[in-house]
């Protein structure tokens, strides 16, 4: 009979043999996913994967004793398709925002003050975590923190420890001073295409880096490049406070 236990066992054995066969199909996700794709080699083939696909591939290769098989290929594509359908959009909000469903509260009894100048400056950076490399661009920079934007990532998480290399700034500093600077991810948000994160560092961890960034921030501390978002919030708070007082 077609559904006899012996026949089922035979079909299962054939399926295991099929999944264990070496695979010669290249996985190329460039242009198919929002995340940055990089070249990775396994099974003597060069594949182009984003961070999520690469980490999934590593896990599957371990399960198949490091061999790139039909099973690795099929399970990886199936997992990626499933994860893609679960992706959700999260909007990044500025300090001041308009939302008819969630009215913003503006306190009259407090003002925002920055401990360090925050400079609006876009410069390319490389972010390393374990053996995964991400390319990003800074949005603003202080001595103790940076805000960055990158193509959509899936494996970077809040509290992850990373190293950051400032590609252009490193050229104007001492050799390797701004290479692989240690940061921690304070917050991270995503939309459909991009990831936004705030990375922080301890000033005392590397005083040479802190000193260089302090001087760089002072040099860039002009009305054109300084981030005045907190001043705008304070002006808004003061404006509504005056309206409130006059209405009393």
Plain-language structure description:
Helix 2 runs antiparallel to helix 3. The protein is an alpha+beta fold. A hairpin with a 2-residue loop joins strand 4 and strand 5 (132-141). The chain has 5 helices and 9 strands, in the order H-E-E-H-H-E-E-E-E-E-E-E-H-H. The chain folds into 2 domains: 5-86, no CATH class; 119-247, predicted glycosyltransferase like domains (Thrombin, subunit H).
Strand residue content: 15-25%
User: How would you characterize the largest beta sheet?
Assistant: 6 strands, antiparallel, barrel
Give the topology string: H per helix, E per strand.
HEEHHEEEEEEEHH
The tally of beta strands, per DSSP, is: 9
* Secondary-structure class: alpha+beta
Alpha-carbon distance between the termini? 90 Å
Query: How much helical structure, as a percent, in the residues?
Result: 25-40%
CATH class of the largest domain: Mainly Beta
- Per DSSP, the total helix count is 5
CATH architecture classification of the largest domain: Beta Barrel
From the spread of the alpha carbons, the general shape counts as elongated
User: Uncertain regions: pLDDT < 50 for 5+ in a row?
Assistant: none
CATH-defined topology of the largest domain: Thrombin, subunit H
Strand order, biggest sheet? 4-5-6-9-8-7
Radius of gyration: 25 Å
Mean pLDDT score: 81
- Total count of domains: 2
CATH superfamily of the largest domain: predicted glycosyltransferase like domains
